[in-house]
Amino acid sequence: MVDYDSIKSSDIMVHLKNLSMSYQRGVNALDDLSFQIKKGDFVFLTGPSGAGKTTLLRLILREVYPTRGELLVNGKNVPKIPDNKVFLFRRDIGAIFQDYKLLNKKTVFENVSFVLKVLGKPKREQRRKTFDLLRKVGIQHKLHAFPPSLSGGEQQRVAIARALVNSPALLLADEPTGNLDPDLAVEIMKLFLDINHSGTTVIVATHDRELIHMMDKRVIALERGKVVPWGYRKRVFDDLREEE
Amino acid sequence: MLEQLSNLKYFIVESLSNIWRNKIVNLLSIGTITISLFILGIFFLAGLNLSAVIEEWVEKVQVNIYLKSDITQNNFLYLKDRIETSPEVEEYKYISTRDALDDFKDIFSKYETFAEQLGEDVFPASFEIKIKNEFRTPEMIEKFAQRFESINGIEEIHYDRDWIQRLNTIVKLIQLAALVIGGILVLAAISTTSNVIRMTITSRKDEIEIMRLVGASNSFIKGPFFFEGLIQGLLAGGFAVIMLYLLYDVTSNYIKTSAGMFFTFMDLQFLSDIHIVVFLIGGMLVGTLGSLFSLGRFLKV
Ligand SMILES: Nc1ncnc2c1ncn2[C@@H]1O[C@H](COP(=O)(O)OP(=O)(O)O)[C@@H](O)[C@H]1O
Ligand SMILES: [Mg+2]
Questions:
Q1: Which of A158, A181, A242, B257 has its CA 20 to 30 A from that of A145?
Q2: Which pLDDT value is given to residue A244?
Q3: How high is the ipTM of this complex?
Q4: Residue A207 has pLDDT above 80, yes or no
Q5: Is B220 an interface residue toward A (CB < 8 Å)?
Q6: Which residues does chain B have with pLDDT short of 70?
Q7: How far is the CA of A66 from the centre of ligand 1 (A)?
Q8: Which residues of B touch A88 (CB under 8 A)?
Q9: Does A127 touch chain B (CB under 8 A)?
């Protein structure tokens, strides 16, 4: 038996035990994962395409349900959160989606301020925080543009601003630098470090090995839904190199 | 409280911009609500005006008892006594042959000599009886009249039973038709609105999903759709009132000019202010019900 209460009250932000998830019967997208992420941690989630990174982030955000195992996030037993309480749970999480998920009929400014509007924050606070973050991600010159008119990298930055604007307890970033120039990627990582220093737990899913090396943070490596030792792939990679 | 107000503003602005973005489908539901309210309104106005006419006529209802010229003194006094003691009678007037002749001469002064030639027989003496308000139903008037039939010396008892009854039946039929047709139309309007809202919800599935993911509550997501129906209904109510007024204006002008002397006493009535408010609220209800149906079925938690 798990002692849920001790996990809930502890300094654990994400707790997984024997967690499995399959979209189709018999095929596990995530297979028997067990690990914990402490509050205030900065963690990279890596692995090749199809490893299950996105799936894990979706599980954490309660977009999908586990097929088996335990999943506790921010003190909540995620699969057990009542449907009509999920929105409250999500308010503590900032998520950057691989496909951005911006509201195409709202401006850049509205996309970001929307998060604060939903929370019922006063107009002035909405404006101040939104401007602040749009400046930090370097897109303050496109306030009134609509997402479809932006480049991939610009949309990605709007998505980042939206995820951070509410200073969430947990940040989930799915390939947040996938469409950014290296310089800009570094800027965004600095932003993540800043928010991490102010207390936000950060989970960045990426297959960008350079980014991971540069940051020197904890790495959880996935392959075909299983946790594998970090460096394993690197070795295989190097072996292949040597054979060339 | 302030939060609720700012949400309210967001809901209304959002739903207005939705309506504007999907003008065509929204016009469809606004149109059906308008038409159903308009037709309902026609029935209502017809009933209203007919009732007014009937009331006016019923006000004048009187029973005329015409006397034979050879009625005996005894029978005359007996009849007079019976009239006086009947509980239904508000007031009565005896009109002698002379009076009747004078009346005729007053009205048709041109034919004065003609009337003299006709002689007094043509103008029988009569009792004009006004019935008390509480007895002015067709049934009670008939019962009252029947009590006098057996008295000797009465030529004829005349009262306006048939057309009162007929008019009452017509009004009842109109009310029934209004109920049935109006009910069907209102249901159709609710279903159209609900379908239009469903289309908007479906076309915005992705947006709704994103709002969910960034922590929007269910009521925050539903708010704009709710107001979309409400505003559609309110607009439709307004349009229906305007159309009804135009119809009323045309009709009453037509009656005044062409029907001339016969109906001049008949001033058509339009909806009162309270009726108009009820109409607008009714439209709002129809629209709101439509959106609630869709929200219940397609925007479950
Ligand atoms: N919606 C889905 N339906 C079915 N299978 C899916 C779905 N999403 C992902 N998968 C499968 O789950 C596995 C993990 O995918 P994903 O989590 O997207 O990996 P990653 O983000 O690491 O590239 C893959 O095999 C992928 O094909
Ligand atoms: Mg992915």
A1: A181
A2: 41
A3: 0.86
A4: yes
A5: yes
A6: 1-4, 57-61, 104-105, 107-122, 160-164, 258-266, 300-301
A7: 14
A8: 215, 217
A9: no
Closest CA to A147 of A104, A115, A180: A104
What is the number of helices (H) and of strands (E) in chain B? 11, 4
What single letter denotes the amino acid at residue A191?
Answer: L
Number of structural domains in chain B: 2
User: What's the pTM?
Assistant: 0.74
Residue B149 and residue B196 in one domain: no
Domain span holding position B101: 62-159
Q: Is the pLDDT reported for residue A65 higher than 50?
A: yes
> B252 and B281 in one domain?
yes
Buried b (16+ CB within 10 A) or exposed e, A150-163: beebbbbbbbbbbb
What residues of chain B lie within 8 A of the CB of A97, using their CB? 213
Give the distance (Å) from ligand 1 centre to CA of residue B219: 32
- Helix (H) or strand (E) holding A44, with range, is strand A42-46
Q: Which among A34, A122, A129, A22 is positioned nearest to A72, based on CA atoms?
A: A34
Same domain, B122 and B268: no
User: Hey, which of A54, A99, A222 would you mutate to test ligand 1's pocket, going by the most ligand atoms within 8 Å of its Cβ?
Assistant: A54
Would the pLDDT of A57 be above 90? yes
